[in-house]
């Protein structure tokens, strides 16, 4: 059972720089398909010195056998892959994106889900690192490592941090806790088309809408006071939450940004891994538009 989170997940460029030699640093950048950008190409061009690339769509870091995008891999596959990236149980992990949090927030959540409590997010990403005048590595990326030459990570799953579709249906039927949807207002309301064809339009009954972009300003997470205000405006009273807090989005990526924000406010939440890509593909599921 997850306890109330303590300590901030966010770290500054100065904090990361002072711990480069004793931490594993990972570039977990990811872009929406419409952006038509390759995050690995960006990683190749420049990165924090020593950083390796965490591909949320790559083997070992997602279930490549699933028809749904970037679904969680088996714990043993995750452990083997991050061990190749140099992750161990006794060394902190810092994840970042080229800018902001998309991709990196999901990677952070995946580490928390697998029991890696000393995992952190670089607030503002690589852009903020550069804004602070810190050096970037533009040489060819380091060669891929094997598990033997990398680290050894043993997962300890915290299943309270993830939801599946049956969990969501039970929560909807039981009217317990809070469901928050990180998609845009148009998609939530059903007035804008879903980017993936064939999905239902609208949202889960009783869900609140808080687009993840509202929580970020200039690539950095807003202050705790501003985060609490954003949730309040969305209809979620942080101080009055009882029961489970479940987060959803299009495919389980931007919901993790909400997970980070709630962590900063001392609230434990869970990400619905399949999110609307799964829920909206099941025509019999209850939907409100």
From TrEMBL:
Residues 24-138, 173-288 form the Rhodanese domain. InterPro entries: Rhodanese-like_dom, Rhodanese-like_dom_sf, TST/MPST-like. Keywords: Pyruvate, Repeat, Transferase. GO terms for cellular component: mitochondrion. GO terms for molecular function: thiosulfate-cyanide sulfurtransferase activity. PANTHER family: SULFURTRANSFERASE, THIOSULFATE SULFERTANSFERASE. This is Thiosulfate/3-mercaptopyruvate sulfurtransferase 1, mitochondrial. It comes from Gracilariopsis chorda. The lineage of its organism: Eukaryota, Rhodophyta, Florideophyceae, Rhodymeniophycidae, Gracilariales.
